Fold this sequence. Notes:
Distance between the termini: 33 Å
Mean pLDDT: 96
CATH topology of the largest domain: Rossmann fold
Number of helices: 12
CATH class of the largest domain: Alpha Beta
CATH superfamily of the largest domain: NAD(P)-binding Rossmann-like Domain
Radius of gyration: 21 Å
Shape: globular
Strand order of the largest sheet: 8-7-6-9-10-11-12
Order of helices and strands: EHEEHEHEHHEHEHEHEHEHEHEH
Largest sheet: 7 strands, parallel
CATH architecture of the largest domain: 3-Layer(aba) Sandwich
Amino acid sequence: xxxxxxxxxxxxxxxxxxxxxxxxxxxxxxxxxLNRETAxxxxxxxxxxxxxNDVLDAETLTVLQAGGTRVIALRSAGFxxxxxxxxxxxxxKVMRVPAYSPYAVAEHAVGLILTLTRRLHKAYVxxxxxxxxxxxxxxxxxxxxTVGVVGTGKIGAIVARxxxxxxxxxxxxxxxxxxxxxxxxxxxxxLDELLAGADIITLHCPLxxxxxxxxxxxxxAKMKRGAMLINTSRGALVETKAVIDALKHGQLGSLxxxxxxxxxxxxxxxxxxxxxxxxxxxxxxxFPNVMITAHQAFFTCEALDAISRQTIANVTxxxxxxxxxxxxxxxxx
Length: 333
């Protein structure tokens, strides 16, 4: 099957090509992001492969379907960037990669926690400049601290297990309790109780209408003063302007982000020779107690291999008329 692969980077080409060896699809790698303007590039391709910052809104999907596209293979777990009702109306099948390497994202979240706890990002720059002073680098022990895990699926459960290994007390919030977390001694509580009781809060839940801006000004006001917030899930879980205000007034003690709600025009690109036009993001970069990585939590060899293999396998299942176990669809109205 001919597949148009959008938002291609060198690593996408490498891993998808290897994964395709046993399937023999015809891969066409395209650098542009998929949106309503670039959708005509997929004309004549029955399959389209898209990434997290591609925009598959109603207009884009309409252009794809008119050009002969029948299946959309997402090389991501999230699918909030796809207008599923339109896809269903047009008869487009949408498939995702529900799990690849939960360890990759979980370990990155813990890396952000350790970096902020011990000021590693500041220490690294100081030593390279010949400054060996310890002033301003005072950290705190993780042992004995309370960590709040919001969302205890595969990734959240691994984070809970790692933090339990540090000797942390665990508070969890989810619609369904994970027995693995319960076995660690985690206490499931309402979100407000978690916000009020945790020294470190880490987000591991999907972006849905009910979770958008779950960390708002009101939520931040309920947190312990000086608490740490980590987000490696979806940027729009956090209301960025409210977080900036909380950082300015000391209500939020530190912030670790691997995602940002307006990241589409920033992340995955080299903008080092340009002036960043996003004033909100630029303001975040001025805080010494903020650590931002550019949506790289998933970026391990193991994860890219798993994502590529499952993405190609999803297209093969469609081509062969097999059950589409990874299909996503709009909820029934």
